[in-house]
Design goal:
Low-confidence stretches: none
Strand content: 5-15%
Distance between the termini: 13 Å
Structural class: alpha+beta
Largest sheet: 2 strands, antiparallel
Order of helices and strands: HHEHHE
Radius of gyration: 23 Å
Mean pLDDT: 79
GO molecular function, one term: nucleic acid binding
Shape: rod-shaped
Number of strands: 2
InterPro entries: RNaseH_sf
Number of domains: 1
Length: 84
């Protein structure tokens, strides 16, 4: 709210009042993964490569780290926007 007030050359009071009146809306965004159809197929093939053909069970994945998925889930960077 402070950045919005500074950008509009106002005090925080009018910005707060507009939020309460519903004339101004707060929205936030997060970084979200976007997978193409090809990426989805590659992920399925990767998972299927960990299946043991003899037992049809998954092989142990104790030494595998999925950095990209952890990055998307742990990233707390959000951007907040004020909409009129």
């Amino acid at each position: 709210m402070r950045r919005t007030a500074v950008a509009a050359a106002l005090t925080r009071y009018p910005v707060s009042a507009m939020l309460k009146e519903g004339r101004l809306h707060r929205r936030s965004t997060r970084i979200k993964p976007a997978l193409t159809t090809e990426n989805k197929h590659m992920r399925v093939e990767h998972v299927l490569s960990y299946i043991d053909d003899a037992t049809h069970n998954f092989e142990p994945m104790e030494n595998v780290i999925h950095i990209d998925e952890k990055w998307f889930n742990q990233d707390k960077n959000t951007r907040t926007y004020m909409l009129l």
